[in-house]
Amino acid sequence: MLVCLDRKVVSLFECGEHVIRAIPPHSRNLTAPKKDVAKQTARAGMKLARIRTAMLLYFGLRPSELPALQKVKNVVCSYRRTKLGCSDTTTTIVAAVQRLAFNGGEDEHEHEPFTFGWDLDREGNIVVSNSSDEKLFLVCFSTKALLCQASRDPKTFIFHVDATYKTNQNVPLVGSVVISQQQGRLYAKTFAALRWIYNKDLGEPHSVAYVMGDDDMAQCNAVAADFGSDCKYDHLMCYYHLIAKVIDRLKGLPYDLRNSVLRDIYDLHYSRSADDFTTD
Fold first, then answer.
1. Residues 216, 117: contact at Cβ < 8 Å?
2. In which domain of life is the source organism classified (predicted)?
3. Residue 276: per-residue pLDDT
4. Are strands 138-142 and 114-116 parallel, antiparallel or unpaired?
5. Which of the four, 10, 41, 53, 139, has the lowest number of CB atoms within 10 Å?
6. How confident is the model at residue 85 (pLDDT cuts 50, 70, 90)?
C-alpha cells in the first residue's frame, strides 16, 4: 500500500504468494488393518518406502489417501524395536558394550572404563537386551578408580542408590547404571552385579552402613535382598522425596499447622549431631 500525502491518493498492489486461511489437510493416521500390514512387511525385512507402497497396492488406495511416511516409520520402528529386537543402533550398542566388558585386566589402567552386568550368554558375554517387557535392559559402567572410592569404612559415607540429581555436586560416583524399567528384579540384578564387580576387581566385599534411596518399595526390597544378608545398614529416604510426600499429604491442613510440621522436618534434616536430632 502506497500513500501520497500531497494528493491524498492511496494505491494498493498485490505481490508475492497469496495465503489463505484454510487449514491444510491433516495426514491420515494408520488404521488397525494398515498397522497389521506394516508389521507383516516389517517382519519380511522390507524398507519403509516399500511398506508404504505395499499399503497402496494392498488396500487399493489413491496416493492422496496414503498415510505420511513419518507415521509409517513410527509404527514400524516401534514394532521392530519392541518385538523384533532390532533398531538402527542395536548392533552398534551391543558391540560397544561387549567390547568394553570387564575382563579382569583393568589393574593397569585404573581410569579405563569398563562395562558389566548380571546376565551372561553361553560365551560369557554381557546380554544386551532390546528393552522390551520380556527382555529388560541392564548395563553398568564403572572404572577401578571409581570403585576404590567405596573402599573405606562403611560408616564414613552414605551409599546413594539413585544419585542422578547429584551428578552436578561433589558426590563421589561409584558407577552408572542404565536400566529399561524401574522394577524390583532389575534393581536386585544391579546391586548384585555391583557387589560382584567390586569383589572381583578390588578383592574385598562391598559393605555399606547407610543406604539412601527413593520412596520406591521395589528399590528398598532389592537393597534388603542384596545387602541385608551380610550388612547391617540403616535405610534412609532421599530428602527431596520425603519432603515432596509430606507436602502432598499436608494439603488441606491449616497454614500454621503445615508450617510447623515442615519446620520440624527442616530442623531434623539439618541436625549437626544425634543429640540435636533427638532433642525436642
1. no
2. Eukaryota
3. 74
4. antiparallel
5. 10
6. low
Locate the domains of the chain by residue range.
29-86, 90-241, 250-278
The residue type of 148 is C
Burial class (CB in 10 A: 0-12, 13-18, 19+), 92: exposed
First to last CA, the chain: 79
- The DSSP symbol for 272 reads S
Task: Specify which residues 2 forms β-bridges with.
Answer: 11
Residue among 119, 145, 159 nearest 201 (CA): 145
Strand partners, 235: 211
Residue 180 identity (one-letter amino acid): S
Please state the φ and ψ torsions of residue 176, each to the nearest 5 degrees. -120, 145
Give the whole-angstrom CA distance, residue 21 versus residue 278. 70
Backbone angles phi, psi at 178, to 5 degrees: -115, 120
Predicted TM-score (pTM) of this structure: 0.61
Distance separating alpha carbons of residues 46 and 85, to the nearest angstrom: 16
Strand, coil or helix: what is 96? helix
Which residues touch 201 (CB under 8 Å, ≥6 apart)? 102, 104, 106, 144, 147
The CA distance from 90 to 97, in Å, is 11
